[in-house]
Amino acid sequence: MTVGTKRFETASIVKVNILAALLLRQNPPGKALSSDIRRMAEDMIVSSDNDAAVSLWQRIEGSRGLAAANRAVGLRETKPNKHWGLTTTTAADQLRLLTALTSPTGPLTPPDRTFIMGLMNKVVPEQRWGVTAAREPGNRSIYVKNGWDTVDVDGGRWLVNSIGRIVEAGHDWLIAVLSDHHVSQKEGIRVVEKTATYVLKEMRAATAGDGPAQG
Questions:
Q1: Is 35 inside any structural domain?
Q2: Which residues of the chain have pLDDT under 70?
Q3: Is residue 3 part of a domain?
Q4: What are 50-72's pLDDT values in tens digits?
Q5: Does residue 2 lie in a domain region?
Q6: Which residue, 164, 162, 150, 129, is CA-closest to 86?
Q7: CA-CA distance, 97 to 155, in Å (whole number)?
Q8: Which terminal CB of the chain, N or C, has fewer other CB atoms within 10 Å?
């Protein structure tokens, strides 16, 4: 099931997109990142470090570099902004990104896909909310990146986004929940987690699944 054509600001979920763009610029493809760049990439994803994101954003040449990478990945509804966090996207496009990051036929090399997923699996505990709420008890094969911010043009209300992957017996779920107009971050997280849990429950019931699925 693929839904989600409304545009939302990305906030920090775009950091996954930035890392994908960085890896796609490596020449030759799959060339290892330097230790310093690798450390910044880890900080950007695992703890959502904004300073690291700014450095890597500049390294990919900002919105121009992101747009070029997104063409290679097949994103159609993501519009880069000169400030990375104000990039706009749709849930459908985030599913396309997750597919590119996990598919053997995607544009990234196997080591690069493993690197990104490894970082999304190590997100710090206080940021491991969101689509991970839909996992089965005890499942540690979960990969997530969340984004959250207040929106000035929405009266300071919160946008709360969560993208990720849940791998379980017989299923490889890719999930993107984007939302806004929340009175608080806590309320936004509650809505995102409730939505992800409901959708994945319905998808488990509806499909036996023998490959990646999207929600």
A1: yes
A2: 1-3, 208-215
A3: no
A4: 999 999 999 999 999 999 999 99
A5: no
A6: 150
A7: 30
A8: N
